Amino acid sequence: MKKIILSLLFTTVATLTALAWQIQNGSFARWTQNLTAKPSVLEQIELFWIRNSSPAPNKSYVTQFPIRLKVELLSKIELPDTCQNRINIDFLKKVFGDSPPEAQGFENEFVRIESVDCLGALNLDRVFNIFMSRDFQSRNIQGLRSNQVVESINQVCQETAIAFLGKSSYCFTQNIWRDANRYVIHSYNETNAANIQAPVYFREVITVLERLPDQQIRLYNLAYGRGPDLKAHSLVKSVIRKQQAKLINDLIQSARP
User: Which listed residue, of 36, 40, 84, 124, carries a Cα 20 to 30 Å from 164's Cα?
Assistant: First the structure.
């Protein structure tokens, strides 16, 4: 279960050692407009109906799905200038209320994870560098078999082994924007290796590391993911909470002077 949560659905971290992430600044609105799903993102969505041999919805549903969900994610990241720890974990029956019947199997079992963590008065750049580092990733993503990064395009390819579900192998691109007080990281899952046992049909994650007016650092994360069907939802939620607490404690301890 831990591997499912921290590799398939939730993680945005990747290797930083000796690498230089491509980080944009300037107009945030222009940056968000450029966060478009590549054709391969749509192909992974369509993979759900191919693997399940079920009738697929029309093409417009697939095309519009990441567009509509991105609007949802971006609408959530403007938080008040205060910080209060929380985590909400939901297994959805539907992502959108007006989705066609053919989309029911795909949208059912979507996982939505939203968390806010108050890290204390730390250095923002140091927190970002640790959060994105190989050592931090190795300690906090269970079952990671391999991790490859092409820093010139911010692409990350990972392979994991998941108990009872099998192996996953997938790639995603991390788009990063920053200003003086904030890093924003956004990614879609873009590819699955051929003939894998546990595909990631869709994953979109947005993470915000932000310095508040009182100099506290806040970590906000919102993730939507659809991989293999998960059972025992209450157990999964418990595992997520424990792993998130471990990750945050590690991040705070590592970022202290």
Answer: 40
